[in-house]
Amino acid sequence: MNKCALITGATSGIGYELAKLFAQDQYNLVLVARNQEELQRCSSELQQQYGVQVTTIAKDLFNREAAFEVYQEVKNQGMQIDVLVNDAGQGQYGEFIDTDINRELDIIQLNIGSLVVLTKCFLKDMVARGDGKILQLASIASRLPGPLQSVYHGTKAFVLSFSEAIREEVKDKGVVVTALMPGATNTDFFNKADMLDSKILDSGLSNPADVAKDGYEALMSNDDKVISGMKNKIQVGMSNVTPDPQVAAMMHKQQAPKNENE
Length: 262
Description:
The chain is of the alpha/beta class. The chain contains nine helices and seven strands; from the N terminus they run βαβαβαβαβαβααβαα.
């Protein structure tokens, strides 16, 4: 019997690249995303290329009940999830006083609420059988204050702290929890965040396939976390020895609109 990996945000970007890596190693897949047509396209490609079984679940994880419904659908189909990948996440660009609070509450639900629900549901099953792996998409944003993306950075700080805490709780129970921390990556994230005018897009974006490979290898090596990319490792390292106000000012400048005066 092939093992099975469930991946949220699986139809593009880092999530899709991770799906390919699991399929390449003959994991069956459960792909979760909002758009059924995109899910079907990805499912067909992965099944044809790698010969694995792919199940799709179309759910909008902005909704509070959706993560519970994903878990229940998996149980109803009698599937065992050996690896959970919480990849789905979004941000919103702009000064906090100007941004849409309802959009931000949706982002908190997606980036934190649904991640916590899926983690709890599947972690209980993994601990009960003494085996399993969870890969959480954090970000170097988890270690850096993020002016113009304050809520997104705050949610990723939660993901990293939460992941490190539960890793400690289950370290002797056969379950691995790994946090993947990429920097700015060439995905649809910036479009969804209305962030296409930010200077950070000109800073050299990471390749999502490279990020996925770093996360996959860290998970399989039972690492607690991995910062993807040397540039991002250096940035986080520098932030550790730089006063927080200076780090915030640096990030503010990096993420400012391209037409803003230097």
